[in-house]
Design a protein that fits this description.
By secondary structure, the chain is of the alpha/beta class. It has five helices and five strands. The protein has a five-stranded parallel β-sheet with strand order 2-1-3-4-5, with helices on both faces. Helix 1 packs across helix 5 and helix 2 packs parallel to helix 3. 31% of the residues are buried. The mean pLDDT is 89.
Length: 126
């Protein structure tokens, strides 16, 4: 599984670092980070990760707007995307999944559980 590349798009430096360390140490995945939706769009197109973990609430270009742009771009629309959110979006989850989102993970999260949830969403084996 060490060959997996994950792009983490989150405006919170601490969250990005926790996710990066968790995925690198627990799963052995390569992690690329972006601090904004706009930066994430560029990195997604240039880096072609195996997965995008996308913060739901960000200033300027929020997670939903970023996801719509990822889906509109033929170069990035195939990349599975998991939303990471502290917001209670349970009422929107079916709509998000129906729009093509691979999964939703709620903050706060347990780092080892984060890896298990990602593996479950994507059917990636240990």
């Amino acid at each position: 599984m060490a060959n997996k590349r994950v792009l983490v798009i989150d405006d919170d430096n601490g969250i990005r670092e926790i996710i990066q360390v968790s995925l690198e140490v627990v799963a052995g995945w390569e992690v690329i980070t972006a601090a904004s939706g706009r930066e994430g769009l560029v990195k997604a197109q240039n880096e072609q990760p195996d997965l995008i973990i996308l913060d739901f609430m960000m200033p300027d270009l929020d997670g939903q707007a970023t996801f719509r742009q990822l889906q509109a771009n033929v170069a990035t629309q195939h990349i599975p995307t998991i939303f990471l959110t502290a917001k209670e979006v349970y009422y929107e989850e079916d709509d998000l999944i129906n729009s093509g989102v691979t999964g939703i993970i709620h903050k706060p999260f347990d780092p080892p559980e984060l890896v298990r949830q990602i593996q479950k969403f994507l059917h990636w084996q240990d």
